[in-house]
Amino acid sequence: MESSSQQLNRQGNAYFSRGDYANAYRHYAQALNVDREHGDSRALAMTLGNLGNICAVSDRRPEAKRYYQEVLDLQRNLGDDRGISITLVNLGNLCADGEEWERAKAHYFEALDLMDRIGDVTSKAMVYLDLGYVAKETYQLDEAIEHCKQSVTLAKRMGQDTTMADAFRMTARAYLKGQRYDDAIDVCQTGLAIAQRLKDELRMASAWYLMAEGYERQGKLQKAADLLERVVRIDEKYDLPKLEANRARLQKLRGISLSD
Fold it and tell me: How many C-alpha atoms does 192 have within 13 Å on its Cβ side?
C-alpha cells in the first residue's frame, strides 16, 4: 500500500513533469513534513532529493544545495553508494550552473569513483559528458574532447544512442570554440546520423544548428542558411524558445548571402 509520503511525492512528480513547479514544491514540502515526523531515512532522502531538484530547475541554488547536502548525509549513513553517486552528480550540476567549475569537477570525479565501485557504466557515460561540458566552458578544449570520447566509448558499449549523440554534439562545441570548423562539422554529421536513425528531431536540429555555425564561420553562408532553415522549421513545429532569434539570424544570413 502506498504511504502518504509516496503519494505526495508521486503527485509532486506529476506536477514537475508538466512544468508546474509551484504545485510540485507544495506536494514535496508536505511529504517532507510527513517524513520528518515518521523518521524514515530512505523516504526522507527521496523527498529531499525531489525538493533539491525542484529548487535547482527554479534557479534557487542555495536551497537546492542545502537539500542535496542533507540527502548526501542520509545516504552516507545508509551506505547507499548508488544514491550517493546520483546526489554528487546533482551537486556537480548545481555547481556547474553557478560556474563553480572546480567544485563541479570534484563532485563529478567523486561520483565516477563510486560508479566504478558499483559498476554503473551507464551513469559514467553521462558524467564524462558533464566533465566535457565543464572543460569546454573553461577552455580546456583537448580535455573536453577526451572526456567526450570516453563518454562515447561507454555509451556505445551500453547502447546509449542518445548519450552518444549528445557527446558528439559537445565535441562539436569544443571544436567550434577552438576554431576547428571542419572537425566540428564532421563530428556533427556523426551525431546527426544517430539522431536521424532515432527519428529524434530535436537532436537533429541541434546538429544542424552547430553545422550552420561552422559553415557561417567559414564564410559558407548559403550552406549555413540552408541548415538554419531546417532548424527554424523544427523550432516552429515545437514552438521552441529560440524561434524568433533563429528566424532573425536566418534572415540576416539570407541577406548577406544574396548580397555576396
Answer: 19
> Is 125 within 8 Å of 168 (Cβ atoms)?
no
Interacting residues of 203 by C-beta distance below 8 A, sequence separation 6+: 162, 165, 166, 169, 191, 194, 195
123-151 pLDDT tens trace: 999 999 999 999 999 999 999 999 999 99
pLDDT, position 257? 60
187 inside domain:
yes
Domain that holds residue 169: 148-259
Number of neighbouring beta carbons within 10 Å of residue 198: 13
Report how far residue 183's alpha carbon sits from residue 211's, in angstroms, rounded to the nearest whole number: 10
Using DSSP's 3-state secondary structure scheme, residue 247 falls into helix
Establish if 160 belongs to a structural domain: yes
- Number of folded domains in the chain? 2
pLDDT of 38-93, one tens digit each? Answer: 878 999 999 999 999 999 999 999 999 999 999 999 999 999 999 999 999 999 99
Query: For residues 144 and 170, is the Cβ–Cβ distance under 8 A?
Result: yes
Q: Answer yes or no: do 181 and 76 share one domain.
A: no
Report the CATH number at residue 185: 1.25.40.10
84-90, Cβ contacts within 8 angstroms, sequence gap of 24 or more: 84/111, 84/114, 85/111, 85/114, 85/115, 85/118, 85/120, 85/123, 86/49, 86/111, 86/123, 87/49, 88/114, 89/123, 89/126, 89/127, 89/130, 90/49, 90/52, 90/53, 90/56
Q: Which of 57, 78, 48, 43 is nearest to 15 (CA)?
A: 57
